[in-house]
Amino acid sequence: MNYSGIGYDLHRLQPGRKLMIGGVEIPFDKGSLGHSDGDVLCHALCDALLGAASLGDIGSHFPDTDPKWKGASSLLFLQHARKLLSDRKMRVIHVDAVVICERPKLGPHFPAMRAALANALELASDHISLKAKTNEGCGEIGRGEAIACHAIATVGIH
Ligand code: MG
């Protein structure tokens, strides 16, 4: 039996912050505002993993009021979610995500992101699908004020 979960996240982009996506620092003049490192891809993936196991959401496991997670690498959230699944005899089979931002171009960074995610999820990188879209200039994302991500995870029982 396999289960699916979806995840979504959005962060504001501001000068003076690092832009972390999929556990990789992307050179850019703005970065994600957030309590942790603001990694929109990791956060959406984490919610997708938790959703597949009906384990609530990222905010219930990693509250942004907890100083422990201030500036934390969001790869830790993914590792923790994977452990929670593993405790329930569940394993990640496949993840797919689409990151939406106007700039920068993300495609060149996908190999590094997939490697980082593969390591955190203990999943072969060819089972990690990443896509990037612009928002065609529309809204906050189109104006470069925000970055968003949709993700889906498929998990199976051992
Ligand atoms: Mg987030």
Characterize the structure shown.
- This protein is an alpha+beta fold.
- The protein is built from five helices and seven strands.
- Strands 4-1-7-5-6 form a five-stranded mixed beta sheet. It has a two-stranded antiparallel ribbon with strand order 2-3.
- The radius of gyration is 15 Å and the shape is globular.
- Magnesium ion is lined by residues 9, 11, 34, 40, 43.
CATH architecture grouping = 2-Layer Sandwich
Overall tally of structural domains: 1
Fraction of residues in helix: 25-40%
Average pLDDT reading: 96
From the 3D structure, determine the CATH topology: 60s Ribosomal Protein L30, Chain: A
| CATH domain class | Alpha Beta
Number of helices: 5
Strand order of the largest sheet: 4-1-7-5-6
Low-confidence stretches: none
Report the portion of residues in β strands. 25-35%
- Beta-strand segment tally: 7
Listing every helix as H and every strand as E from the N terminus to the C terminus, the arrangement reads EEEEHHHEHEHE
CATH evolutionary superfamily: 2-C-methyl-D-erythritol 2,4-cyclodiphosphate synthase
The main sheet comes to: 5 strands, mixed
Helix-strand makeup class: alpha+beta
Q: Quote the distance from N terminus to C terminus.
A: 9 Å
